[in-house]
Amino acid sequence: MQTLTLTRPDDWHLHLRDGEALAAVLPDTARRFARAIVMPNLKPPVTTVALAAAYRERILAALPAGMNFTPLMTLYLTNNMPAAEIDAVKASGFVHAIKLYPAGATTNSDAGVSDLKKCAATLARMEKLGVPLLVHGEVTDPAVDVFDREAVFIDRVLIPLLRDYPALKVVLEHVTTRNGIEFVKDSGANVAGTLTAHHLLLNRNAMFAGGIRPHHYCLPVLKRESHRQSLLAAAVSGNPKFFLGTDSAPHAQSAKEAACGCAGCYTAHAGIELYVEAFEAAGARDKLEAFASFHGADYYGLPRNTEKITLRRDAVTVPASLDYLAGERLVPLRAGESVAWRLA
Ligand code: NCD
Ligand code: ZN
Asked: Which of 55, 77, 110, 340 is most exposed by smallest CB count within 10 Å?
């Protein structure tokens, strides 16, 4: 089979940045995906419905004419987000979730939550109104090994959280371990997980292949092969709790290729194509459409897309770098190598 037609997909976890960077990366996503859940970790973070409304307008203004794309906005949870903000979220119609970044866990997370107990009233309101909590699931305790931070977060934070708020909708974003997969599977229908293409395609060896590979460094960090196998099995299982979230996270080349390089892989240039590769390698191309186009919409209570896209098996060479900021390049995943599928 040389072509693959599927319902137009959505990206349930995406970093679009702002300003010049936003303008540079947005077309890659908008060409492929009908909608995307847009992460709020700007500087300063998007913490109110009013800030989300303004950010949404900047995204729509940056969208090239003729492109059809809907940004689904999120708010950044802080220790002092008032419960009333959740009512405003529900009334807005364009903010779809609240994002939890443990303080210091990843890029622009300094304003994140230091203790979920401080958010009790807000979490209770979210549970009541059915507003999903999207979780960056890693502890920041420096005593915990970096490869164990997701598993420890599940034990220390997620299990107690769901004990306190059993009906809270929780998405464990970018699941990277078997522990994360098991947690999502074993929880109720209110708990789901997103999977990135790079975590489905790569294991941690990719960070050290012949030398240090900063463009394979993201958070949560790539894990060992047995974990990758668990993620892939969940993705192709048909279980509606798992859906597509690229976590495409652009950083300037100079910020990645540095003594202390930033976390994040840019994958939006092949945002659906990379998943086709992963599913095909697992012999499960027929399982991609539900994962990419149905499960997320169903979880968020949004209509499924009706448009179709077609992909063709035809190797594309990925450029060594892409236009980004003035005087700064963006190095995409697979730079200088090829992706096996292209948009028809
Ligand atoms: C993200 C970013 O750069 O904003 N980086 C990453 O490695 N995924 C933040 C995040 O989602 O952790
Ligand atoms: Zn992310």
From this structure: 110
Question: Which tens digit of pLDDT belongs to each residue from 124-151?
Answer: 999 999 999 999 999 999 999 999 999 9
107 lines ligand 1 (CB under 6 A): yes
- Structural domains in the chain, sorted by start: 3-343 (3.20.20.140)
- Ligand 1 neighbourhood includes 8 CB (under 6 angstroms): no
- Measured from the Cα of 219, ligand 1's closest atom is 7
| Ligand 1 atom at minimal distance to the Cα of residue 106 | 12
Mean pLDDT of 159-165: 98
Query: How much is the mean pLDDT over the chain?
Result: 97
Q: Is residue 44 reached through a cis peptide bond, with omega within 30 degrees of 0 on the bond before it?
A: yes
**64 C-alpha to ligand 1 centroid (Å):** 25
> Atom 9 of ligand 1 has which residue's CA nearest to it?
107
Count of Cβ atoms closer than 10 Å to residue 226 Cβ = 10
Residue 143 CB contacts under 8 Å (≥ 6 apart), including other chains = none
Tell me the CA end-to-end span of the chain in Å, nearest whole number: 14
CA of 314 to the centre of ligand 1 (A): 30
pTM for this predicted structure: 0.98
Tens of pLDDT, residues 26-69: 999 999 999 999 999 999 999 999 999 999 999 999 999 999 99
Can 247 be counted among the known catalytic residues? yes
CA of 264 to the centre of ligand 1 (A): 5
The runs of H, that is alpha helices, within 40-171 are 49-62, 84-92, 120-129, 149-153, 159-164
Letter for the amino acid at 20? E
Which ligand 1 atom sits closest to the C-alpha of 109?
9
| 291-312 per-position pLDDT tens digit | 999 999 999 999 999 999 999 9
Rounded CA gap, 279 and 77, in Å?
Answer: 34
